[in-house]
Amino acid sequence: MLSALIAGAFLGFIIWIIYLANTGGSSIFFELIKHIPYGDKVGHCLLFGTLTFLANITLKFETIKLGRFSVYIGSCLVAVFVLGEEISQGFIPSRTLDIADLMADGVGIGLFSYLTWLTHRFIPSYYQGKNHE
């Protein structure tokens, strides 16, 4: 329950950031990333990576099979959200569709999916009562 509240609040934060960017609004976060080398890309990676990690925990590490691979459902949901959001930027005059942003999002989703796997494997699972083997 708590993980769902945290994930929902974080998703709300991301939606607020997207709204500000789409409407040309300003935020202290936008000012902060201007002073960090590649701050925009780091921001994409960390925001969507963190959302991925929270979604995977909230969904109790559930996976689906894609061919030979088991993929976290939360990771898939965040990837679909990210793809839709990035593509939508091509239709908003004040935004630009940037493949580098999409790549940074993908790196974040991938890294934090791996962090999810490590967490699930090596930290006793609240949901299973044992380590995932």
Automatic annotation (TrEMBL):
Q: Where are the transmembrane segments?
A: 6-30, 42-61, 67-84, 96-117
Q: Which PANTHER family match?
A: DOMAIN PROTEIN, PUTATIVE (AFU_ORTHOLOGUE AFUA_3G10980)-RELATED (PTHR28008:SF1)
The organism of origin for this protein? Shewanella holmiensis
Organismal lineage:
Bacteria, Pseudomonadati, Pseudomonadota, Gammaproteobacteria, Alteromonadales
- Asked if the record carries the keyword Membrane, the reply is yes
Q: What is this protein called?
A: VanZ family protein
Task: Tell me the keywords, alphabetical order.
Answer: Membrane, Transmembrane, Transmembrane helix
Give the source's domain of life in one word. Bacteria
